[in-house]
Amino acid sequence: MIKPNAVKRGLIGEIIKRYEQKGLKVVAMKMIKMKKAQAEELYKVHQGKDFYQPLIEFILSGPVVVMIIEGPRVIEAVRSINGETDPLKAQAGSIRGEFGISVRKNIVHASDSIQSAEQEWKIFFEENEIFEYLCGFENEL
Ligand code: GDP
Ligand code: MG
């Protein structure tokens, strides 16, 4: 997910480009203004933490771009492209490392496991919004 500050800064294309050029496949994508219930579901594991409420407010502060990405080792791949949670600790060439400073406004969100991905895509997508097509990385699986 591309967070609201990154959408406002015009980074949508720059971010999607990095997943595509790594060889990953975007199989669903849309821009939405998240509903409060969706934000609370997405971040339910952080409920009660001190950063939770400001994080929810930030995520609701403007449109976000949500997408489903497929590929070999996709969880690891996307999290490595994104970089560590704190942009100042994130690898220099990563998205957060290059474009972020604030931990809360750290440019992107990604699922941290296949199980959480399955829960998270259901918050934003219907089955018929997810596409199946061949893109080339299938040979690398
Ligand atoms: P992620 O999986 O790398 O996005 O990190 P987490 O799942 O741990 O946290 C979810 C989001 O909450 C992060 O992307 C940050 O935007 C925010 N967050 C996490 N830890 C902190 C913190 O210590 N301070 C603040 N302000 N925000 C945090
Ligand atoms: Mg997380």
UniProtKB/TrEMBL annotation:
Q: What class of enzyme is it?
A: transferase
- Nucleoside diphosphate kinase-like domain span: 1-132
Gene Ontology BP term (one): CTP biosynthetic process
Q: Which cofactor does it need?
A: Mg(2+)
- Catalytic residue positions: 109
Could you tell me where this protein is found in the cell?
Answer: Cytoplasm
Q: Name one GO cellular component term.
A: cytoplasm
* Keywords of this entry: ATP-binding, Cytoplasm, Kinase, Magnesium, Metal-binding, Nucleotide metabolism, Nucleotide-binding, Phosphoprotein, Transferase
Write down the EC number. 2.7.4.6
Entry-linked InterPro entries? NDK-like_dom, NDK-like_dom_sf, Nucleoside_diP_kinase, Nucleoside_diP_kinase_AS
Claim: Iron is one of the keywords in the record: no
A molecular function (GO) held by this record is: metal ion binding
Per its record, the protein catalyses: a ribonucleoside 5'-diphosphate + ATP = a ribonucleoside 5'-triphosphate + ADP; a 2'-deoxyribonucleoside 5'-diphosphate + ATP = a 2'-deoxyribonucleoside 5'-triphosphate + ADP
Q: Which Pfam families match?
A: NDK
Instruction: State where ATP binds.
Output: 3, 51, 79, 85, 96, 106
Q: Which NCBIfam families match?
A: PRK00668.1
What is this protein for, i.e. what is its function? Answer: Major role in the synthesis of nucleoside triphosphates other than ATP. The ATP gamma phosphate is transferred to the NDP beta phosphate via a ping-pong mechanism, using a phosphorylated active-site intermediate.
Q: How does it assemble?
A: Homotetramer.
Family as reported in the entry's similarity comment: Belongs to the NDK family.
- Which protein, by its recorded name, is this? Nucleoside diphosphate kinase
Query: Highest lineage ranks of the organism?
Result: Bacteria, Thermotogati, Thermotogota, Thermotogae, Petrotogales
- From the UniProt record, report the name of the gene that encodes this protein: ndk
